[in-house]
């Protein structure tokens, strides 16, 4: 994703385990002017930060009850969110969003967050 792809940098919060984001993925997102915050544990997600960010990515490997509670919270906050994995090796019948350094996968995530009806470019950075 070229730097000129976005006119304004924005932040995306990642709720996942501590090793979920590879160094290569984080660098690729930063190069595209997309700041990944986290990974945070589910209990660390602050409502104010979630409401102000461009969106939240939830690790599909988290406990189902935790994912349900987080998604309910984010819906109440009108915060766009997606369920993601970080490896194509994750067994799944469907193809979830992939958080990595691949330009196409990055674009898919940004496009899906934008389609949620929120103009993420107008949300202030922290």
Q: What is the gist of this entry?
A:
The chain has about 130 residues and is α/β, with parallel strands linked by helices. It has helices at about 25-30, 45-50, 65-75, 105-115, and strands spanning about 10-15, 35-40, 55-60, 80-85, 95-100.
Task: Describe it.
The protein has 126 residues and is of the alpha/beta class. Helices cover 33% and strands 20% of the residues. β3, α3 and β4 (81-85) form a beta-alpha-beta unit. The longest helix is centred in the middle third of the chain and has 13 residues, at 64-76. It is globular, with a radius of gyration of 13 Å.
First CA to last CA: what distance? 23 Å
Count the E strands. Answer: 5
Gross geometry: globular
Strand content: 15-25%
Helix and strand sequence: EHEHEHEEH
Unreliable spans? 1-8
